[in-house]
Amino acid sequence: MTADSDCGVLDTFISPPSVEQDLWPHLGSSLSLNCTLQLRDSCNGSFTWLKDGRAAQDLYRGQQSAWIGLNSSERFLSSILGVNLTTEEDFGRFTCQLQTFSASFTLHRTDKAGHIAAVLFALCVVAVLVVGSILYIKCRLNARLWYRDKYGDPEINDGRLFDAYVSFCPSNIDTKFTNFILKPHLENRYGFKLHLDERSLLPNTEPSAELLMNVSRSRRLMVVLSLAYLEQDWCQNSFRDGLYRLLELSHRPIFILFENQYKDLPPEVTQLLSSRRGTLKTLLWKADSVSPASDFWKELRLALPRKISLVDGKGDPQTQCQDDKDPMLTGSSEAADPDPEGDLGVRRNLYKAPPPRMAPKMLAVQREPTGEVDISDLGSRNYSARADYYCLTTEPDL
Question: What are the two backbone dihedrals, phi and then psi, of residue 114, each rounded to the nearest 5 degrees?
């Protein structure tokens, strides 16, 4: 900007960067308003500060300085006004003037409502996060169970007979837990079908054929891993190798540990189970796990296959999923199987005792030819038994 004056020519405006400067300071803060101007030739003028059109030097502390640049013909003039915003009256328009030049700083009041709204919004966000965290901790298992029961894979039509193969040690504690707590709760309350086996799961270096058959018939492998279970030979010799063989037999096996025995387990066992957490499921039986609403049963149900509740009169759920209308598989079919014990509806031959031996005279009378063949029972005979040929023989031809 330029302007003619007796002191020379006003050449370059350094501060503020624009003639109109808007600021939004907080109440209680301090500001330094800087007006700096580059002059050509020497000039003895000074800045004058105004606040809302009135002189501000008496109300606010100002400091003015001047210096010469690298070129002796250049001169810089600066004035700094210190403003302490202690009251709302300190906000307003501050103007620095030098002859015909002026620059303004407008201090706007910060809206209190904006602070209140921001604080309330922040508090609401924090409250939502806290409530969401509490609900996630308390209801995450229920939500996962609901989603799994509604949209999960029922794992049907896979040819498996059992939902879980349970391996446990025939000790007093393990037997009571398996037969009187685990099995009744899962079978009677949720309809799971378990296969219990108290023999050693891996007695030799390789699994037996019977073990492979039983495990293949089950959708999950469940191990009650107690101190008595770990005292078996295969666990004492190499638990790591046995665990790797179990992972080959079943997808993500389930290990149930007792809380009162957990601290006495060998360190290598707990470390190995922790390191394989992604390929197996570890559950801890606690004192409060007896309750049906405990997290233990919820996590165990999530680890087991999804169960489909059978509605009375609706037939086998596997048949419903496959839309199979076979009357042999549908419980409420009108065309019932005439011979439920037979194979594919074909009635079996009924083997009866031979007829009583007849007297020779009566047998001779019966063998007398009558000249006619009785064909009244041909319609009831089953000719499908021999489709290739069917011959009729009479008693004299034998």
Answer: -65, -40
DSSP 8-state secondary structure symbol assigned to residue 348: P
Report the C-alpha gap between 35 and 63 in whole angstroms.
11
pLDDT in tens, the chain (398 residues): 434 445 555 556 677 777 788 888 888 888 888 888 877 665 667 788 888 888 887 778 888 888 777 776 677 888 888 888 888 888 889 988 887 778 888 888 876 555 677 888 899 999 999 998 998 888 888 888 888 888 887 777 777 888 999 989 888 999 999 999 999 999 998 889 999 987 766 655 566 777 788 888 888 999 999 998 888 766 766 778 778 877 887 878 999 999 999 999 888 888 888 888 888 999 999 988 988 889 999 999 999 988 776 555 444 444 444 444 444 444 444 444 454 444 444 444 444 455 556 555 555 545 555 555 555 555 555 544 444 444 444 455 54
Contact between 116 and 125 under an 8 Å Cβ cutoff? The reply is no
The alpha carbon of residue 308 and the mean position of all alpha carbons in its chain are separated, in whole angstroms, by 21
**Residue 148 and residue 302: Cα distance in Å, rounded?**
8
Closest-CA residue to 156 (of 274, 45, 376, 320): 320
Contact between 315 and 330 (Cβ < 8 Å): yes
E strands along the chain, which residues?
Answer: 4-5, 8-15, 20-23, 30-40, 48-51, 54-55, 61-68, 74-84, 92-98, 101-107, 162-167, 194-197, 218-224, 254-258, 281-285
